[in-house]
Amino acid sequence: MESRLGFLKPFEPNGSQERFGFMAIINLKKKEVQSKIVYYGPGRGGKTTNLEYVYKKFRSRIQTEMVTIKTHGDRTLFFDFLPIQIGTIRGYDIRIQLYTVPGQVKYESTRRLVLRGVDGIVFVADSLAVRRKENVLSLKSLADNLASYKKSILEIPLVFQYNKRDLTDDGIPLLPVEWLEQDLNSELKAPYFEASALKGPNVAQTMKKIILMTIDSLRNDLT
Amino acid sequence: MDKQYISDADGQRTYIFTPAQLSEIEAVLAEDLLDVGVHSVTLIDMAGNIISTMDNGDNKHDLYSLAALAAGNFGAVSTMANLIGEEEFSLLFHKGNKENIHFSKVTDEFLLITIFGKEVSLGFLRLKVAEATEKLVIILKPGS
């Protein structure tokens, strides 16, 4: 498939899969599945805010504190981490590890580290009109970083979240959803949600969708 | 079930641990490390998932967060090593007042985290970790 954007190249196996290809961990003794979902996107787009909302909303399913490694300026330095138990599917306890990456451009190598072993991605796009280019660059960096682990953005479970939609009420110029779809999702054709990570609409729906897609991708293994 | 890897149509892989394999791993962690006085020992993958964990019953650590941070830390330190022209730093050890943490790479995909107190010397711990690692490498080998 030739991509108009030039970065959506399908992954071609080259035999070095063993080193990088691991996905979820399935423990047949404890009947437990551990799966890693990463929230990716440009800086100040609302990735951490998504996890904070989930943490608040689903407190009863989360047994630990949310882990965040931040700078003094409240920016994500390494990652945020939130483990959540979502119950049983086909007799397996499903344990989802939610991560964010640092969005700032300079932390590219850190983003790559966090993506190691990822099973599903939420791409949190910033709806602010002034952030159009940053969204596209961040998606390209996601495709490149996945490729470094021999994974393809075309094949991994992926959900888009167009965040900050609530700001339209304040008269702040936002990118129309059609533009975001065209910029980011015209070829990937992934599910998308219009959301407000700060206020809550569609935050849980985004998470539920990516969890379902990720677990569905493991269905053949859950015998 | 004797399979260990499963490849799906996309070529992605899931790592599946059989009950027999996990029992073998637990036996190594218990006999080589817990029995010499280590407080807790956890085998994780480099993505931060827990494969197996054993402790002496006194520990209430948040191991899932610890695993996520340990994997991140190990990745960060490996990248630091590369920046100064080293392939990796072989010893990763944090010393506390009561508890110490020792990280040891088992294979490219797995990491052993050992938490221990003053009763165990670092030298002895490293020796025992090396012995356990040799056994774990065999158990974790694909198709073993």
Describe this structure in words.
The complex is a heterodimer of chains A (223) and B (144). Chain A is α/β, with parallel strands linked by helices. Helix content of chain A is 28%, strand content 26%. Chain A has helices at residues 17-20, 47-57, 108-114, 132-148, 177-184, 203-217, and strands at residues 22-27, 32-40, 67-70, 76-89, 92-100, 120-126, 158-163, 192-194. In chain A, a hairpin with a 2-residue loop joins strand 4 and strand 5 (92-100). The longest helix of chain A is centred in the middle third of the chain and has 17 residues, at 132-148. Mean pLDDT of chain A is 88; it is low at 1-22. With 144 residues, chain B is α+β, with helices and mostly antiparallel strands. Chain B is globular and about 40 Å long. The two termini of chain B are 12 Å apart. In chain B, a hairpin with a 5-residue loop joins strand 1 (5-7) and strand 2. Classes of the chains: A alpha/beta (223), B alpha+beta (144). The interface between A and B is large, with 43 and 36 residues. Strand 1 (22-27) of chain A pairs parallel with strand 2 of chain B, so a sheet runs across the interface.
